[in-house]
Predict the 3D structure of the following.
Amino acid sequence: MNSLLIEINSKEDKRIFTSLAKRLHLKTRLLSQEDKEDIALAGAIDAGRNSGYVDEQVIMNTLNKLKCK
């Protein structure tokens, strides 16, 4: 299965695209801003997994610095 993500700027464009999708018997789903952020976070996590080993102390130091801000 393939997915296509289209960012729509107007209600009229949204109506046109959803109408076309229904006509073509395609599934549609509106993504909220939170959904888009979750997708981006998942991508960042996957990229981090593939970037190699990071020492636990480096992570803890970074978290402590963020906590103090």
Q: What stands out?
A: The helical segments are 11-23, 33-49, 56-68. The chain has one domain: 11-68. Residues 11-68 form one domain.
